[in-house]
């Protein structure tokens, strides 16, 4: 993302958006992005940063495997997105990585698979999301297949540079080409929902408030309605 000094207002405001708000905006544009099965497992349940992707594969039986020494490639604020094929029998992220990533001010890690040493991530205050946790190492079980290539996160395709957002409800991914329109739409929807809530809290029936402000069409694009 841009530096804080040159950060546009819509982007600054967007950092407070929830995954639910962004998911609704993705629905409006007919975009996938809600990563099924990915949840917070350690550290603060908050992510907002561009993806650095790593794809793993089962080990080549003729040479040792590696979980990858890629952390020095990451810049502050980047979110490491690791695709281990959803495997639950071995990990590709552990305690040394969490502590070092926190020290380097990496934005967080999301694993399509499991991670371990979650207590160390908690202690370091490092955001860690995955399908779950399990203690067995991935060393000599998996190997790095590709860096900065498209990967799978739950049921969502993630490309390098895509925006990754996480909170207590899980993770959403916004294609980097569509970031501004999706986040601006999410902010607009938030404002409308705030109006609905205010109207209902001051005496209007919820059904009337929703009708007045178009609640039931907030996730429908105009082209969809026209069809």
From TrEMBL:
InterPro entries membership: RraA/RraA-like (IPR005493), RraA/RraA-like_sf (IPR036704)
Pfam families with a match to the protein in the record: RraA-like
Cofactor list: a divalent metal cation
Name used for this protein in its record: Putative 4-hydroxy-4-methyl-2-oxoglutarate aldolase
